[in-house]
Amino acid sequence: MGIINPKSQDVSGTSFTMSKGGSQNISRLLLITLLLSGFNISCSTTSWMVVNEEETDRDDFELISTEHYFTSQGEVTPDHPEISVELKAVNTYEYVQRIKTERFVQQYRPRLGYVLAGAAGAGLSYYAAFSDKLIKTPSDPQKYALTATGSTLLMLSLINMEPVGEAVKTGESRLLRKTGIKTEVDTTDAQLERTETALLRLTYQNETLLEEQRPFTGNSIEVNLVEELNAENLDPNADDPLIVHTRYNELEHIEQIPVTSVFEKFAVVSSEITALRNSPKINPNNILTDLGRGSQLKLVSEEGEWSKVMYGIAEHWVRNSDVYTILRPSEFASDLSVITVSKIPFGAVDVERNIPQNPAISFSKVGFVLANRTYSGALSERIYAERDSRLMQEYFEHSLGIRERNIVSAENVSNHQQYESVIRDLRNTVSVSDSLLTVYLSGYAEVKNSSIYLLSSNQAEEDPKLLNLKNLFEEINRFSLNSLVVFADLDFLGSGESQAAMNELAELINRKIPRSVIIYSSQVNQRSGMYTALDGEQKRHSIFTYFLAEALKEGNTTVRDIYNHLQRNVSFTSRRLYDQPQNVSIYGNPDITIAD
Fold first, then answer.
1. 226 by DSSP, 3-state: which?
2. How many domains does the chain have?
3. b (16+ CB within 10 A) / e for 416-434
4. Are residues 407 and 321 in the same domain?
5. How, if at all, do strands 466-468 and 436-448 pair?
6. How many CB atoms sit inside 10 A of residue 46's CB?
7. What mean pLDDT value characterizes the chain?
8. Cα–Cα nearest to 271, from 580, 532, 590
9. Distance between CA 562 and CA 550 in Å, rounded?
10. What pTM did the predictor assign?
């Protein structure tokens, strides 16, 4: 029999043998692998949470009642003159309240402290299993137990996690059991049939301007007030509002709208000429230009005797008495008619230049010029009165041969004290030897109690000042005069008197001074107009004064010749320009020569 080598003998059992270095490397590798895996481990969980125990279930409701009402939308302005009256529905609902839950997702990760503690325990178990430092020559079961214990400790440390951040909603929600009832009121646009209509009525100053059945557009009645109304039927100076009345079944809606919220105000020049000024005061230096009759300007405001208007892009001023107000849509401002009368210096008009020079200067002649241009209150400014006054003074001096120092002039006499002062100056100028007094009067006049009054320039007070021409002529009667000639360019206002007052004033001086005469520019029931044709001639004087100067320029020296020239031209020109008469009248002796 051969000898059996024990090293080559087949052993049916299994043995757990490993070198010391190999066992340590394996334990380290296992530990590192588990640690790295642990720090990368994370997980999430989902849960349902109650967020509201009285959540309204919008799908579970009952309509209790519905009521309707009208309401206006938007603000009416001249740029947007539309009014919209909407029909609204007020619905009352009962909603079921329930418990509301929502689903949340929460992220988790291992706790660092636990992981480190588990790693330490696992490392100690592995070390004991694969080395003989702690347990001398551990058996295989011991090694299995220690390895399992280390792995278990490490795994337990890894699965002991902490939440990361806040739980995140998934957007999922559930309504659970009923907890109560909630009542809500909701206002919505009323739902109407397409054929439904409402009664629309527009009234102004108790007068119905429009009344008709108007169909609904959706749930609203829409009205463009500019298209429905005629601005001519509205009073621009009244504060009465427009009344918009809407009625549908038993519902009514009444709204008051200011007229100026629909239309804008415009000023229209009513006088023949008015000055456009850059400040609200009468001053020859603040006139921007002159405006002709019919000029239209946007009205900004009215302040006292003045109207602030837009001319171009700037604000300017005109007298209230020279304009009237109209209402127009806002787009009217883009098509305004403005008639400007350009300013020209004195001397540019034909009768202002080449005035005949009288070489015979007389020391026995006196001239008196009184002209009122500026008027406060409701009277229009007599725009060329001062120019008329200067023209007459030029002719008195150069054509009639009156010394400059013998010409007494006054403008814009506003009260009795000034009037008496002017008469006193005239008295002091006239001497005993003076033989001829030539008078020129210009201004508004009024016949009252058979007397003719020149209106003072201050008419703003409740008791307007009237300057009785009888006082002037009675004072003149006290002078020792050989001849008296009066040219009265008086613009009579609303007089229903007869011509008797003109005759009586003339007789007052005719009885005392036989060689005296008065020429009136018009009858008491006529106006004395300006020589201004907006599309043609611009003479910058009154018709009467222009032709008076023209008569003197043409060499007429007797009152008769001057009157004939006036009679031929004044009324004809007035009718041609204004289609109204202006008949010159004469009282007294026409055979007086006023220039040598």
1. helix
2. 2
3. eebbeebbeebeebbeeeb
4. no
5. unpaired
6. 12
7. 85
8. 532
9. 9
10. 0.64
Instruction: Note whether 373 and 325 are same-domain residues.
Output: no
Task: Write phi, then psi, for 142 (nearest 5 degrees).
Answer: -65, -40
Determine contact, residues 296/267, Cβ cutoff 8 Å: yes
Q: Is the dihedral of CA 405, 410, 411, 417 positive or negative?
A: positive
Kindly state the average pLDDT of the residues 571-584.
93
The DSSP-derived string for 180-191 is EEEEEEEEEEPP
Q: Which pairs from 389-393 meet CB under 8 Å and 24+ separation? A: 389/440, 389/442, 390/346, 391/346, 391/351, 391/352, 391/541, 391/545, 391/549, 392/367, 392/440, 392/487, 392/545, 392/548, 392/549, 393/367, 393/369
Residue 429 sits in a domain whose CATH number is: 3.40.50.1460
Query: 333-337, 365-369, 397-401: which range is least confident on average?
Result: 333-337
Q: Token pair of 229, please?
A: 């109304």
Angle CA 293–295–301, to nearest 5: 115
d(C-alpha 363, C-alpha 336), whole Å:
56
> Residue 273 in contact with residue 291, Cβ under 8 Å?
yes
Mean pLDDT of the region 235-241? 91
Tokens 């109690």, located at residue: 449
Q: What letter represents residue 501's amino acid?
A: A
| Type of residue found at 495 | S
Considering the domain boundaries, does residue 175 fall inside one? Answer: no
In this structure, are 369 and 272 located in the same domain? no
- Interval 409-463: pLDDT, tens: 998 888 888 889 998 999 988 876 668 999 999 999 988 888 899 888 776 555 5
Report yes or no: 284 and 386 within 8 Å, Cβ to Cβ. Answer: yes
Co-location of 281 and 383 in the same domain: no
* Residue 418, token pair as written in the block: 């000034």
**Residue 576, domain member (yes or no):** yes
Domain identity same for 485 and 584? yes
Q: Alpha-carbon distance 564 to 555, whole Å? A: 13
Determine the pLDDT at residue 36. Answer: 56
- The whole-angstrom separation of Cα 584 and Cα 582 is 6
Interatomic CA distance for residues 493 and 447, integer angstroms: 8
Instruction: Please give the single-letter amino acid code of residue 340.
Output: T
Listed residue (318, 320, 325) closest to 280, CA to CA: 318
- Give exposure, 250-283, as e/b (b: 16+ Cβ within 10 Å): eeebebebebebbbbbbbbbebbbbbbbeebebe
Spatial CA neighbour of 322 closest among 369, 287, 371, 285: 287
Amino acid in position 62: E
In a domain, 510, yes or no: yes
- As a whole number of angstroms, the distance between CA 222 and CA 72 comes to 10
Can you give the residue range of the structural domain that contains 534?
Answer: 361-588
